[in-house]
Amino acid sequence: MSTLEPFEVYAIRYARVDRMASENFLGGDPHEAGMPMDYFVWLARSESKTWVIDTGFNQQAADKRKREFLRSPAEGLKLLGVDAAQAEDVIVTHMHYDHIGNFDLFPKAQFHLQDSEMNYATGRYMATPFFSHAFEVDEVVAMVRNVYKGRVSFYDGDVELAPNISLHHVGGHTKGLQVVRLWTRSGWLVLASDASHYAANMNEGRPFPIVVDVAQMIDGWDKIRTLVDDPSRIIPGHDPQVMNLFPAPAPELEGIAVRLD
Q: What is the value of pTM for the model shown?
C-alpha cells in the first residue's frame, strides 16, 4: 500500500461555448453535429498542501471572445473552501488566455511554468496570428511582471514537485504545455489540460486544430498514457462529459464542480 499522501482533485467549470465538432478536430467533417466546450480550472488538495491549476478568464475576456461566463473561477474555488487571494501555489499548464487570466485574484501565489512556454509566448511566433490569437498580450506581460517580482518558478521539462505531484512537459498545443500528475486514493491521475481538449482527441487520434506541433501533440498522448495505470484517470481539458462522468462533491455544487479522484 502506498504511503503517499493522496490528493482530492476537483474540476471547476466557469464558462462554456457552443461549437461545431468540425472546430475541434484537424480535418473535422463540417457536417458533424454540435460539440460544445466547457472551461475549467482545477483544484488539488491534500491534508498538507493545496495547488490551484490554471486561473481561467474573466467576464471581460468572455465578452471579447463571445464565451458564456458562468462564474469567476475564484467563486468556484471559494465554494470548495479555497480563497484565491490566499492561494500560495498556482500551476500554469500553458499561457493561453483561458488558462492565465485573473492574475489580480491570486496576489500571493507563486506560479509554476515551463521555460519553453514563456519563450514561446514572448518570442518570434507571436508575430504570426495563427499562433498568437489564443494569447492575450496583457496577460503575457502580466506574467513577465510576475517574473520580475520573483513570483514565477520555471522548469525545463519534467519535474517532481513532491512525491505525490509532478509536472510533465508534452508541448504540441503550445511549445511549453505541461500536464499535472497527482496521486489520489484511486491511484495516479493526470490533468491533461489542453494536451487533449476532449477525450476524443486522444482516444481517436484526432488532434485539436490549435496546435504548434502536431507530431509532438501525438507523442504527448503516448507519454500521458504511461503516467497512469487506468486511462480513465486521464482528464481532458475542455470536455463537457467531465461534468457527467464524475460526481459533484455536494448537492449545491451540481453543475459547478465535480470530484475527479
A: 0.96
For residue 33, pLDDT over 80 is answered with no
Domain that holds residue 116: 8-160+235-259
pLDDT of residue 31 exceeding 80, the answer is no
In the 3-class helix/strand/coil scheme, how is 225-247 assigned residue by residue?
A: HCCCCCHHHEEECCCCCHHHHCC
Strand-pair partners of 203: none
So what's the pLDDT on residue 29? 67
Element (H, E) at 107: none
Asked if pLDDT for residue 28 goes beyond 80, the answer is no
Query: Cell 483544484 appears where?
Result: 43
Return the beta strands (E) in the chain as ranges: 8-17, 37-45, 50-53, 68-69, 89-91, 110-114, 152-155, 159-162, 165-169, 178-184, 187-193, 234-236, 257-259
The DSSP output letter for 34 is: B
Q: Is the pLDDT of residue 30 over 80?
A: no
Q: How many domains does the chain have?
A: 1
CATH of the domain at 144: 3.60.15.10
